[in-house]
């Protein structure tokens, strides 16, 4: 077989295959007619044969690279994974994520200690001596927090009274604004953006030996603990706790979950086990990304709660505490039991 | 091809080629995309992303009058978050390993073993971007050069590579070959150049406009001189020296016909002939 003849003979099929590929660029393989799919498959195999034939003869690079590119495009289309749909997302959140979470619960527990440990300690210390809070958080920000959580009905401390006098009208307006719903949407958007970014960065930087992850976990733990201790220590406990109890369930847990995913990446390099470091990173990376996505979904829920439910003044605090308790139980039950029934079968 | 076969490792080390074997037992060669192209693709994506966020803010400031300022800004923040974290991953997962920037520069994300990137793989490599982009992507660039195959951290974890996708046409025979007159048989010895040599001549002539005139002729002269020696060419040696390309083309024209004739006899024995002619008929029927 001569090169010129070969090209003349086969280029019809090549052009046809090219056309099919161009069509595949605009529509998915699923919408291909059965005849087209069969033809695509047949032409693809023929092209593979042509390519290996040409590779065994020295007929010039031009022809080889032409067929190589054609076959690689075909390969890419032929072996692409089936597209996902909404059912897969639901399946992942209800079964896949909690299962992977339980499989790697050790990392979560470590991250939880790294996060809740500093949180609890700072909380206790700062509540005991509120002046310490300014060592962690700038005083202006503390003032702002205090303003946000000061209760207009029962001004308990002197500081509060002063605040109310200084800027009381402003605070009241903020809470009793007719456009309060509007404000909440703004805050929900902000929480989604801000909190989830922190959590995902916490995960991503885990790959650098988890240094970034551990730092983020401890830093956030201390900051949250100091804020909580300060506000409770200065007598805003009711307003503050009723505010945070609901969304804290999803938010704080999700931060520890994302941190755990980051630790998985970092630990794969430190303790690769029986695999090579790179291989360990890949195997655990595939699970870690799914856990991180689960954490991101939890933070979405948290942001919605934080934006719309937690700051609502019309809901009495007792209802908020009850709702918060239910949410904490819900998170616990979700992470510990979801997807178990399928595991057994 | 043959040299790469002999020492695939060595060939890999010096070239940007990625060789994979498909389930059909065919070896495919991809060209890996270097940091420069990828940076340009990233910049296009960056401009696009900023454009989308600005457009959404712009639109929201109008919508804000109707729906309330807070709602619109809140939505903007959500959009911004999604653009930040999901743009690359979702685009690469659902548009066969491409983003807009990658499409412009004909890049594609593949698994290292040649398969299209999976959804989790695409998400993972782009989440880890958060670590790669530390100090203006310094971490990413350093790992790209250290890891081989230009893989940044995200690629290492997700087992992906970025390849360049070329679009090439069916190679045509250079026009010069149809015009040139064959050499006279009287001027030649008994040596017959192999089909490989002829293919080399054809390809060299086909791509001769890549080189400058002088360089092209200097290179052609090397081949023409040794070929003339082997052929025991007794014609004008000045001709070989001054027009080496024309000489090469003449050699090709002389022996091309001869090869075609001997090949015809072997055609029956050629394994490829039978299924091909059948499939061609089917392809013709289909069109």
Write the layout of secondary structure elements.
The complex is a heterodimer of chains A (345) and B (287).
Chain A: H1 3-26, H2 34-56, H3 61-78, H4 86-103, H5 105-128, H6 139-149, H7 158-176, H8 180-204, H9 211-233, H10 237-270, H11 277-309, H12 317-337, H13 340-344
Helix pairs in contact in A: 1-2, 1-3, 2-3, 4-11, 4-12, 5-9, 5-10, 8-9, 8-10, 8-11, 9-10, 10-11, 10-12
Chain B: H1 2-6, H2 8-14, E1 17-21, E2 27-32, H3 35-67, H4 69-94, H5 100-104, E3 107-111, H6 119-127, H7 129-132, H8 134-147, H9 153-158, E4 160-164, H10 176-179, H11 195-206, H12 213-230, H13 237-242, H14 244-266, H15 273-286
Antiparallel strand pairs in B: 1-2, 2-4, 3-4
Helix pairs in contact in B: 3-4, 4-6, 11-14, 12-14
How many distinct beta strands of chain A? 0
First CA to last CA of chain A: what distance? 59 Å
Which of globular, elongated, flat, extended, rod-shaped describes the shape of chain B?
elongated
Number of contiguous helices of chain B: 15
Largest β sheet strand count, sense and barrel closure of chain B: 4 strands, antiparallel
> SS-based structural class of chain B?
alpha+beta
Shape of chain A: elongated
How many separate domains of chain B? 2
What is the topology, as strand order, of the major beta sheet of chain B? 1-2-4-3
Regarding quaternary structure, what we see is: heterodimer
Measured as a percent range, the helix fraction of chain A is over 70%
- Would you report the number of β strands of chain B? 4
Could you state the order of secondary-structure elements of chain A as H and E? Answer: HHHHHHHHHHHHH
Q: What structural class should be given to the helix and strand makeup of chain A?
A: mainly alpha
Order of helices and strands of chain B: HHEEHHHEHHHHEHHHHHH
**Would you tell me the overall average pLDDT of chain B?**
80
Annotation keywords:
heterodimer; A: 345 residues; mainly alpha; 2 domains; 13 helices; B: 287 residues; alpha+beta; 4 strands; elongated; disordered N terminus; disordered C terminus
């Amino acid at each position: 077989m001569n090169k010129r003849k070969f090209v003349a003979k086969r280029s019809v099929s090549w052009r046809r295959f090219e056309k099919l590929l161009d069509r595949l660029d605009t529509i998915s393989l699923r919408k291909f007619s059965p005849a087209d799919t069969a033809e695509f498959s047949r032409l693809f195999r023929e092209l593979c044969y042509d390519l290996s034939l040409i590779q065994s003869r020295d007929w010039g690079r031009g022809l080889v690279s032409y067929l190589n590119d054609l076959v690689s495009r075909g390969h890419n289309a032929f072996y692409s994974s089936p597209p996902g749909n909404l059912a897969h997302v639901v399946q992942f959140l209800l079964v896949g994520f909690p299962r992977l979470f339980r499989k790697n619960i050790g990392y979560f527990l470590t991250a939880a200690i790294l996060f809740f440990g500093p949180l609890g300690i700072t909380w206790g210390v700062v509540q005991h001596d509120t002046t310490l809070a300014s060592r962690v958080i700038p005083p202006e920000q503390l003032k702002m927090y205090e303003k946000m959580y000061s209760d207009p009905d029962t001004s308990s401390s002197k500081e509060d009274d002063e605040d109310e006098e200084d800027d009381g009208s402003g605070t009241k307006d903020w809470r009793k604004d007719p456009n309060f719903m509007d404000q909440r949407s703004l805050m929900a958007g902000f929480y989604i953006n801000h909190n989830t970014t922190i959590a995902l960065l916490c995960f991503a930087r885990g790959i650098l030996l988890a240094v970034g992850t551990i730092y983020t976990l401890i830093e956030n733990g201390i900051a949250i603990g100091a804020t909580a201790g300060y506000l409770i220590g200065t007598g805003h406990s009711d307003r503050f706790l009723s505010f945070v109890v609901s969304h804290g369930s999803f938010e704080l847990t999700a931060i520890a979950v994302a941190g755990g995913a980051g630790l998985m990446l970092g630990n794969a390099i430190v303790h690769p086990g029986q695999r090579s470091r790179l291989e360990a990173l890949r195997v655990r990376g595939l699970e870690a990304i799914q856990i991180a996505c689960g954490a991101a979904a939890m933070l979405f829920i948290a942001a919605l709660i934080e934006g719309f439910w937690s700051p609502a003044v019309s809901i009495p605090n007792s209802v908020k505490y009850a709702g918060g308790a239910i949410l904490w139980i819900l998170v616990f039950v979700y992470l510990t039991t979801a997807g178990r029934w399928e595991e057994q079968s | 091809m043959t040299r790469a076969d002999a020492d695939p490792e060595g060939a890999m080390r010096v070239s940007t080629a990625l060789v994979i074997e498909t389930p059909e037992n065919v070896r495919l060669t991809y060209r890996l995309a270097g940091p420069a192209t990828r940076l340009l693709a990233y910049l296009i994506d960056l401009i696009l992303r900023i454009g989308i966020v600005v457009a959404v803010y712009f639109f929201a400031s109008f919508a804000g009058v109707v729906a309330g300022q807070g709602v619109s800004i809140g939505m903007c923040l959500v959009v911004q978050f999604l653009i930040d974290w999901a743009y690359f991953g979702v685009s690469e997962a659902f548009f066969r390993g491409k983003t807009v920037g990658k499409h412009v520069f004909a890049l594609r994300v593949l698994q290292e073993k040649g398969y299209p990137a999976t959804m989790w793989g695409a998400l993972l490599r782009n989440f880890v971007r958060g670590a790669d982009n530390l100090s203006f992507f310094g971490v990413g660039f350093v790992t790209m050069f250290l890891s081989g195959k230009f893989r940044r951290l995200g690629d290492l974890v997700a087992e992906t590579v970025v390849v360049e996708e070329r679009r090439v046409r069916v190679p045509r025979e250079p026009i010069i070959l149809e015009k040139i007159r064959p050499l006279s048989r009287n001027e030649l010895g008994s040596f017959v150049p192999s089909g490989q040599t002829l293919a080399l001549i054809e390809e060299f002539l086909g791509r001769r406009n890549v080189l400058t005139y002088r360089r092209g002729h200097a290179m052609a002269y090397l081949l023409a001189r040794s070929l003339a020696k082997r052929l025991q060419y007794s014609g004008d040696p000045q001709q070989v020296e001054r027009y080496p390309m024309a000489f090469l083309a003449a050699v090709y024209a002389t022996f091309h016909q001869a090869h075609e004739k001997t090949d015809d006899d072997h055609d029956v024995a050629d394994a490829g002939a039978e299924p091909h002619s059948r499939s061609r008929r089917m392809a013709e029927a289909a069109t």
